[in-house]
Amino acid sequence: MALMTISCACSRSGFERENAIARSHNPVGVELHIQTKNHKREFSAGEKLQFEEFYTSKYPGQWHIEVLEGVNGPANTDVVYIFDGKRSWTSSVNQSSIACCMTRHVWLGLEPTRVPYNAHPEDIFGGNPEYREFAVPDTPGKYEIYLTSDRLYSRDEKTETYSGKGTRMTSDIMSIRVR
Hints:
Layout: H1 14-24, E1 30-36, E2 42-43, E3 48-57, E4 63-66, E5 79-83, E6 88-92, E7 105-107, E8 113-115, E9 132-135, E10 141-154, E11 167-170, E12 174-178
Parallel strand pairs: 2-12
Antiparallel strand pairs: 1-3, 3-8, 3-9, 4-7, 4-10, 5-6, 5-10, 10-11, 10-12
């Protein structure tokens, strides 16, 4: 009688394991989901990938996030992790060198809070961009991407954050193809 060994086709890469470990450090009940503009999954080499972040909390009133772009410290902490199947690296998100002057927090709940936040232009010097963005790799292939952000604060922390960092959040993984 022959013994048959079945190997799991769903074994995860080191990148996926790294993401799972990082996500396990997210606060209980708080999630960060990333999504491309119009759910686009194919890009030309070097094209700008436009995306948005969605934050939720199962416990309304427990957590808040900094939502203004490029005018305070927490807004400039976002990092994109990219994996091509063999190696991984990081890329910055459309960050500003200006880290002063303006802050605005939004409390999280079950309804997703989108970043970039749709704030009134008069509330923000220069306004928030419509989407976050970074350049996709120049080499054609399949890529996995996730984001970390230090925009999250507990209810006991202040709601004015001109500098510094909040609690680190790690997003889910998004897959794209570069042609």
